[in-house]
Structure formats: structure tokens, C-alpha cells
């Protein structure tokens, strides 16, 4: 007895998928039979929210999941992108200028954060956590000082506002479908970047063994700075898109930081595919909960997280440490 160790099932991904998937499938069929229009409309809204969560969490996956930098100011970067994008869009009248400004400004902020903060706290997770929590509090006050406590919402170009004909629900806003499409394109692009390019190979090698990569002549700090800037820029991009699809207001930084954490934990640290799966599960669970059980809707998200952690602690697509 003492010499044997209990081992987790080798097919834990399949088991986790079945434990989560079968009840969801049964409830979905029942909801579809009861009110097909409500179910499909809620499902589409869930997919749109999942796309937005993925855009935020994809950057968090690069910074926290892949580089192991505990950046709890990631939500503040999201909010910064939204505020800067709104200001530039209001000044220029161009939504695309707002997108560019949100991405570039936050990418530069992330670059500075990596160079001035994380570079000197490599591997010190507790210090990173405390410093970024403090930074997020300071930034929240600065945002309040500059932009006030108002709620802001972007207006996309008029050609994005037309209704797209769909069966059963009659029509669905084109912009929300474009958000879903942009998340798919960015997700595929990130996967190809990390798995099919030499820079992606250097990033993964640097995470596994920085000294060996540095000995081969690669500037590890430069690679990590570029990766951090990309992850932060994606948060800024999501801030503009989120401000268009929903809104930007004080407190949204905490909401999207928590969503990103849950998505990365459920999907698996450092996995773009896992971030996709996690965002889908959390986004759809949140909207379905709001539609069918608004009082207990938030519980669904935590049930998914508890089940995944119980059956597969490293996340659905995560690797064992």
C-alpha cells in the first residue's frame, strides 16, 4: 500500500470533457426544445462574449501562462486601451484610429512594464503579484482622475451596424459577428506565431531554459520584451473592441482580469488552444446563466473551474509542470 501511488487517469482530457460536456448538452437540448429563439440568441451572445474574453486572455496567456510573469495589472492595460481608444476616436472620428491607438499605446506601456519592473523580478512571483496589484490600484485612480467615473461606449463604422439575417432569431448585429471573426483570426495567428515561427520557438525555449537560449546568442530580454508588448497590445485592442460591443467604465479592469485568470486556469497555462476552450466555456456559461438563472448565474463559471481543477489541475490543454 505504502509503495503505490495513486495516478490520475491517462485520458483525463476526455474525462473532463465528458463530465462538463454531457450535462451541458442535456441542458442545451432542453433549452432548445423549450424556447429555440431565446437559446440561439443567448448562445450567439455567449460566443461574442467568449471572443472578447479570448482577446483579453490571449495576451494574458502570453504574459502569465507562457512567460510565467504574474501581471495582475493586465485588467488595467485593458482599461487603458479602452480609454485611450475612446479619446483618439472622439478626437479623430475614426474607429480604426481608436483601434490602432489602443493597441500601440498599451503595447508600449507593456514594453515599459517588462523593462522597468518584471526584468528585475524574474521568478519572484510574490513580488510580481504585490507590485502589479499596487500598480493596478494606482492606475485605477489615475484613470478616474483623467477620464472621470463616466461610462464610455464607442460607435463603430456604420457599415458594421447592419443586421445579418439568421434563421430562427431573424437577424443578428454584424459587429458582434465581426468580433467573433477577429478573435478567430487573432487566435489562429497567435498559434502559428508561437508554433510555426523561429521567434515563437525562441519564446518557448526561453521559458523552458533561459540560460541555454542566452548561451546560443539570443537576447532573451529582448525576446521577452517583445512578447510582453504583444500580450499587452492585445489587451489594449480588446479594450477598444470591448468598449464598442459593451462599454468601458471604472471596475471593468477587475472584471476582465478575473475572466482572464479563469480562462487561463481552465484552458491551461501557456496554451492558445486552451485559452480558446476556456473562453468558450466561461463566456457561454456566463450568458446562459444570466438568461436562465440570473440569481445563480455566476455559480456556473465556478462550477466549471472546480470540475476542471479536480479532474485536471493543469487545465484542459495544460502540461504538467
From TrEMBL:
UniProt GO BP: amino acid transport
A GO molecular function held by the record: transmembrane transporter activity
Presence of the UniProt keyword Transmembrane in the record: yes
Signal peptide: none
Annotated TM spans: 12-32, 38-64, 71-89, 95-118, 130-148, 168-194, 223-250, 256-284, 291-311
Membrane keyword on record: yes
Record keywords: Amino-acid transport, Cell membrane, Membrane, Transmembrane, Transmembrane helix, Transport
GO cellular component: plasma membrane
Domain of life: Bacteria
InterPro entries in the record: ABC_transp_permease, BCAA_transport_permease
Cell compartments where the protein resides: Cell membrane
Primary site of residence: membrane
Membrane protein topology class: Multi-pass membrane protein
One Pfam family, short name: BPD_transp_2
Family: Belongs to the binding-protein-dependent transport system permease family. LivHM subfamily.
Protein name: Branched-chain amino acid ABC transporter permease
Species this protein is from: Pollutimonas harenae
Amino acid at each position: 500500500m505504502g509503495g503505490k501511488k495513486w495516478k490520475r487517469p491517462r485520458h483525463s482530457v476526455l474525462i473532463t470533457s465528458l463530465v462538463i460536456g454531457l450535462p451541458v448538452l442535456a441542458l442545451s437540448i432542453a433549452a432548445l426544445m423549450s424556447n429555440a429563439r431565446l437559446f440561439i440568441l443567448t448562445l450567439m451572445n455567449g460566443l461574442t462574449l467568449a471572443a472578447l474574453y479570448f482577446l483579453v486572455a490571449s495576451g494574458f496567456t502570453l504574459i502569465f501562462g507562457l512567460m510565467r510573469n504574474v501581471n495582475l495589472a493586465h485588467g488595467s492595460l485593458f482599461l487603458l486601451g479602452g480609454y485611450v481608444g475612446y479619446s483618439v476616436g472622439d478626437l479623430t472620428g475614426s474607429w480604426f484610429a481608436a483601434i490602432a491607438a489602443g493597441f500601440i499605446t498599451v503595447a508600449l506601456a507593456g514594453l515599459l512594464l517588462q523593462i522597468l519592473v518584471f526584468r528585475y523580478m524574474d521568478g519572484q512571483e510574490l513580488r510580481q503579484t504585490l507590485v502589479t496589484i499596487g500598480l493596478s490600484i494606482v492606475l485605477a485612480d489615475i484613470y478616474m482622475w483623467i477620464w472621470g467615473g463616466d461610462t464610455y461606449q464607442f460607435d463603430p463604422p456604420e457599415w458594421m451596424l447592419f443586421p445579418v439575417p439568421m434563421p430562427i432569431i431573424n437577424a443578428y448585429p454584424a459587429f458582434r459577428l465581426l468580433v467573433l471573426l477577429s478573435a478567430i483570426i487573432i487566435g489562429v495567428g497567435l498559434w502559428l506565431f508561437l508554433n510555426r515561427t523561429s521567434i515563437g520557438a525562441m519564446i518557448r525555449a526561453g521559458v523552458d531554459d533561459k540560460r541555454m537560449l542566452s548561451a546560443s546568442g539570443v537576447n532573451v530580454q529582448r525576446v521577452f520584451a517583445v512578447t510582453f508588448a504583444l500580450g499587452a497590445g492585445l489587451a489594449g485592442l480588446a479594450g477598444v473592441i470591448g468598449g464598442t460591443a459593451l462599454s468601458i467604465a471604472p471596475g471593468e479592469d477587475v472584471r476582465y482580469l478575473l475572466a482572464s485568470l479563469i480562462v487561463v486556469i481552465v484552458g491551461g497555462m501557456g496554451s492558445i488552444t486552451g485559452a480558446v476552450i476556456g473562453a468558450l466555456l466561461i463566456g457561454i456559461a456566463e450568458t446562459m446563466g444570466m438568461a436562465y438563472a440570473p440569481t445563480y448565474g455566476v455559480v456556473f463559471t465556478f462550477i466549471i473551474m472546480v470540475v476542471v481543477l479536480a479532474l485536471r489541475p493543469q487545465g484542459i490543454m495544460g502540461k504538467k509542470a
